[in-house]
Sequence to fold (245 residues):
Amino acid sequence: MDILYYFITGFIIGGIGTCIGGLFSVMVKNPSDKTVSGMLSFAAGIMLSIISFDLMPEAYNIGGFFIVTLGLAIGLLIVFIAEKMIPTQKLNRYTGKKLSYVKMSLIIMISMGLHNFPEGVAVGSSAVYSENLGLKIGILIAAHDIPEGMSVGVPLVMAGASPMSVVLLTLLTGLPTAFGAVFGAALGGISKYFIAFCLSAAASSMLYVSANELIPEANILHRGKSNAVFLLIGFICGCYLSFSM
Fold:
């Protein structure tokens, strides 16, 4: 097996979509509080839709109640541990709101990592079976990752991170997909229960980010009906991605 080939392929597939999302984020210059609130609500809607129609149904179908429950609990625990491990003292260039945005973005990146690893496994294992099938799945995953890249990029932009940093960090979220592709190619017959566990853990962490970080912050920045509208638009866009692809 050509490990480097699967790693590079997985990284490109996982990173190109999130990188495009990061580019969209940096295109918004000096956004108002209302604009940022709408973008955060939109990102939350996307994530809630992915949880509802992509991650959880698939996890339940292949893993069952026990595996999914275990994954949900472990996913939340991972986020709690990750929050404690964020090196706040090394982020002293950021203060107040900017620091909270950086933390938010890092937690989202961890959630995306949990989500992207099983996607990489899907790419690697399917490519071993059929290169055409692997390519098709890869294209769909790349398209799916664009709004996820925006959910990482928007808080970084609000924290004052440079455009280059935003693009590079969103690109790095493709690494779990790369490792997953190698893992899936090496173990084509990997246990489906492991995939279900990863999917449910990702769902749990993404739910935490949406409910505890994105939506509350959006409501703090701007109180109004527009937040609900952008949340719904994001949810609808996520539905389209889940059901049309």
